[in-house]
């Protein structure tokens, strides 16, 4: 073994699987796969219709984040504003249900999401057509 080797040029290495939890070196491809596997981009929000997206994590994700992305000005929010609804719960109003298995993430919105207006803080229902859903699933 050589202590502290200095590489030159463009050295390559095998790319571990995203589910690999060993001490193998992480290539740039591994990091890119880790960041993008289970990242579904912006999704339209179905109402009362279960949707699903396949992931390539190789196992059931142990974390899922959910964000709303404003696509048309609504409720004081501007286009591009992002609202974290990962732990959203509003009794008697809309409910986002997200479920994952070893191959896919399924999601459905029942009703309308109610949030405080961005500036006045008055509680108002969002116009769901003005928002996209952004989901990200991963394993620690």
Topology:
Elements: H1 28-36, E1 39-43, E2 51-54, E3 63-70, E4 82-84, E5 95-100, E6 104-110, E7 114-116, E8 123-125, E9 131-138
Antiparallel strand pairs: 1-9, 2-6, 3-4, 3-9, 5-6, 7-8
Low-confidence stretches: none
Q: Which sequence of SSEs, written as H and E, runs from N to C?
A: HEEEEEEEEE
The number of distinct β-strands equals 9
N-to-C terminal Cα separation, in Å? 31 Å
Overall residue-averaged pLDDT value:
83
Apparent shape = elongated
Helix-strand category: mainly beta
Give the DSSP E fraction (strand runs of 2 or more residues). 25-35%
Helix count equals 1
Identify the strand order in the major beta sheet. Answer: 1-9-3-4
* Biggest sheet character: 4 strands, antiparallel
Rg from C-alpha positions? Answer: 20 Å
Question: How helical, in percent, are the residues?
Answer: under 10%
Please describe what this structure looks like.
The chain is mostly beta strands and 140 residues long. It contains 1 helix and 9 strands, in the order αβββββββββ. The strands form 3 sheets. The chain has a 4-stranded antiparallel beta sheet. The radius of gyration is 20 Å and the shape is elongated. The two termini are 31 Å apart. The mean pLDDT is 83.
């Amino acid at each position: 073994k050589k202590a502290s080797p200095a590489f030159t040029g463009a050295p390559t290495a095998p790319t571990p699987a995203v589910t690999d939890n060993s001490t193998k070196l992480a290539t740039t491809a591994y990091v890119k796969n880790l960041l993008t596997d289970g990242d579904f981009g912006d999704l339209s929000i179905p109402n009362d219709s279960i949707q699903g997206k396949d992931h390539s994590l190789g196992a059931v994700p142990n974390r899922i984040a959910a964000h709303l992305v404003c696509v048309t000005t609504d409720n004081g929010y501007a286009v591009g504003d992002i609202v974290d609804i990962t732990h959203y719960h509003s009794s008697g109003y809309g409910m986002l249900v997200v479920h994952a298995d070893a191959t896919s993430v399924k999601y459905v919105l029942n009703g309308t999401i109610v949030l405080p207006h961005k500036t006045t803080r008055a509680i108002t229902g969002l116009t769901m057509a003005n928002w996209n859903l952004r989901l990200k699933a991963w394993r620690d």
